[in-house]
């Protein structure tokens, strides 16, 4: 049974007083008399057959019943998100973040919740309380996505009764446009900053809801991608991170989003303090990596007589590893930088920075969203999987360090191998198959993936007919069909 955290955990939107008749009018124009509502509630079949307008009147005064109706939908929503992250279709073009915000809002759960709420502010407020409660209880960031999708679904239907009283509406609408473009441009950055700066004294609780909107993985993805793009631009402009107001705003929003759980849990509605070293040391270090790559690439293109003997840097500056371990925002940006270089097929940079991922803040490098994106981007480096050094660095040096303690990592490695097994050298593939064997504690998903991999590898083995001795040349040669390449 879902119970709210209470009005303290985020702003409450019932700004129309507590008069029952007024509240009922938010549901439908002609309220059903209370006696009839009691009769309906007493008869389960009658309740089921009721129009949603009547159910809204029942739900708004019966939170437990409404919680029972909403709970399966929320479970379904989380399951759908996880299924996408663990999908066997690995692609750099179609990943978790590919669907547009508008397409996502057409999903069954969002549509059903939107219909259940209608124009009823009280029901909307209850759903938000459920989402805050569950986010606090589970730390599952998909509840933050649903918080934003639900508001924007009501926005699409022009339900002003709710949109005008949700203080996050305009901020979410602006951020939604950025998510659609996968970039925060200067104009929208200023708008978003205006909303953040406009939180008035005495209304700081709104920050709790804004932080939840910014904790949505789709928002984090947009902010992080924009940060990487800004850093590259700054390299070209010879400008330091601290001199870029737009970059500082992106960091401010990332920080607010990443601190959502702590803020709602502690009930201290203040923006997290930005560590100066993030801006003065970590980001310039990332920019120096961009310069390293550029220098190396230019050197490689020079005629051989002009080439310098510049080997690609193989060591990581110690502070980089430390930042990834101790600073949540640095870790998030660092991981997105690694996704960026993988997408660019930059094998040297990838192998150089990979060891820093073994130990990161809250094990973020082993989170499902990062591994989902990484496995997709690694398909672009498919040919490297034939190289021993690359496979050892990736599997032995990274994935296998966590497989035994984190089932989700085990699943992601098996997903990757199912997709790229034909690229891996046979000896390496055999040792990986053994290393990835499920244990007694392994869940069904891991066992099923390992079985699929074993079947694929069995199919790759030459059949006994192909292995037998070549027939005597005196006899006519039988026509052997060429085995289909798998």
TrEMBL record:
Q: Which GO terms describe its biological process?
A: negative regulation of transcription elongation by RNA polymerase II
Against Pfam families, the record matches this protein to: COBRA1 (PF06209)
Q: Where is the composition biased (Basic and acidic residues)?
A: 454-463
User: Where is the stretch described as Disordered?
Assistant: 1-20, 454-486
Q: Which GO CC annotations does the UniProt entry carry? A: NELF complex
Q: Which PANTHER family match?
A: NEGATIVE ELONGATION FACTOR B, NEGATIVE ELONGATION FACTOR COMPLEX MEMBER B
The protein's name = Negative elongation factor B
Could you tell me which species this protein originates from?
Pavo cristatus (Indian peafowl)
């Amino acid at each position: 049974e879902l119970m709210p955290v209470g009005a303290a955990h985020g702003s409450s939107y019932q700004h129309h007083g507590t008069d029952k008749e007024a509240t009922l009018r938010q549901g439908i124009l002609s309220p059903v008399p209370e006696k009839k509502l009691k009769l309906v509630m007493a008869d389960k079949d009658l309740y089921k057959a009721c129009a949603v307008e009547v159910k809204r009147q029942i739900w708004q005064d019966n939170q437990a019943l409404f919680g029972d109706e909403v709970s399966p939908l929320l479970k379904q929503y989380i399951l759908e998100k996880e299924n996408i992250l663990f999908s066997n279709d690995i692609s750099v073009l179609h990943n978790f973040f590919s669907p547009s915000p508008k397409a996502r809002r057409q999903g069954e759960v969002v549509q059903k919740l939107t219909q259940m709420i209608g124009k009823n502010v009280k029901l909307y407020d209850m759903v938000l309380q459920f989402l805050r409660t569950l986010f606090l209880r589970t730390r599952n960031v998909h509840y933050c996505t649903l918080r934003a999708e639900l508001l924007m679904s009501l926005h699409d239907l022009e339900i002003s009764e709710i949109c005008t009283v949700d203080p996050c509406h305009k901020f979410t609408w602006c951020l939604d446009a950025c998510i659609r473009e996968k970039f925060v441009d200067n104009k929208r950055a200023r708008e978003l900053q205006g909303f953040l700066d406009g939180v008035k004294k005495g209304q700081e609780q709104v920050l709790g809801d804004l932080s939840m909107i910014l904790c949505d993985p789709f928002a984090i993805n947009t902010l992080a991608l924009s940060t990487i793009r800004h850093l590259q631009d700054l390299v070209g402009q010879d400008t330091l991170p601290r001199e870029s107001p737009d970059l500082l705003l992106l960091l401010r929003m990332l920080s607010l989003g990443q601190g959502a759980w702590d803020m709602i849990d502690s009930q201290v509605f203040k923006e997290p303090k930005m560590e100066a070293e993030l801006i003065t040391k970590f980001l310039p270090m990332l920019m120096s990596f961009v310069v390293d790559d550029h220098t190396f690439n230019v050197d490689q293109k020079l005629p051989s007589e002009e080439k310098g003997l510049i080997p690609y840097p193989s060591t990581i500056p110690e502070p980089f590893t430390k930042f990834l371990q101790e600073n949540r925002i640095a870790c998030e940006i660092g991981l997105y930088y690694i996704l960026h270089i993988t997408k660019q097929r930059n094998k040297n940079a990838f192998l150089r920075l990979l060891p820093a991922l073994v130990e990161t803040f809250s094990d973020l490098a082993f989170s499902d969203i990062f591994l989902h994106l990484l496995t997709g981007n690694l398909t672009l480096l498919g040919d490297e999987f034939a190289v021993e050094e690359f496979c050892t660095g990736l599997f032995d040096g990274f994935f296998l360090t966590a497989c035994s303690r984190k089932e989700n990592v085990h699943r992601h490695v098996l997903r990757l191998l199912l997709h790229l097994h034909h690229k891996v050298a046979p000896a390496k593939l055999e040792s990986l198959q053994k290393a990835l064997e499920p244990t007694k504690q392994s869940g069904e998903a891991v066992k099923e993936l390992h079985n699929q991999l074993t079947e694929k590898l069995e199919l790759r083995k030459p059949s006994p007919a192909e292995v037998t001795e070549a027939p005597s040349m005196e006899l006519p040669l039988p026509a052997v069909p060429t085995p289909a390449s798998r």
